[in-house]
Design goal:
The protein has six helices and six strands; from the N terminus they run E-E-H-E-H-E-H-E-H-E-H-H. By secondary structure, it is of the alpha/beta class. The protein has a six-stranded parallel β-sheet, sandwiched between helices. Helix 1 links the parallel strand 2 and strand 3. The longest helix is centred in the N-terminal third of the chain and has 14 residues. The radius of gyration is 15 Å and the shape is globular. The relative contact order is 0.17.
Length: 159
Amino acid sequence: MTTTHAQSGNFTAPLLLVDDDPDDLWLVTRSLCKACPWARPLTVACATTGSEALRYLDARLQSGIAPPGLILLDINMPGLSGIETLIRLRTRPGLAGVTVVFLTTADDPRSHGEALRAGADAVIAKPDTMAALDAFAAHVFRTWLHEDGAPPQQLSAAG
């Protein structure tokens, strides 16, 4: 398992996880790495604020490196909320098509609707057990993240 902090300059991470709770960062990263079906270890870039995530993504783009294939983003964060982060992300050239999934403890349908209108691909309640978190992590690979960067749906349609 390789976890990098978004400020570390590791531009190879196929996944960016943004959450202000260090325990959630650790737990989600652990489950994703455990569920990873790839021959190589998964690298997860982690950011604790929306501003940090945007700086990481901007640095990738300025270096000519493709954005991560998936961004998992918390809705409720201090400073820039997840929704504000997504709105800014979607205005940046090269990031408009990145898959963004919100993971949230917020049980507010209004927030969920706002996230979807802002451009989220999905809004999912944070799993509340390790078994549910592991099931979510497996779902990430089946649904949104593939080793070569293409979404699994595109691979099966072409193959």
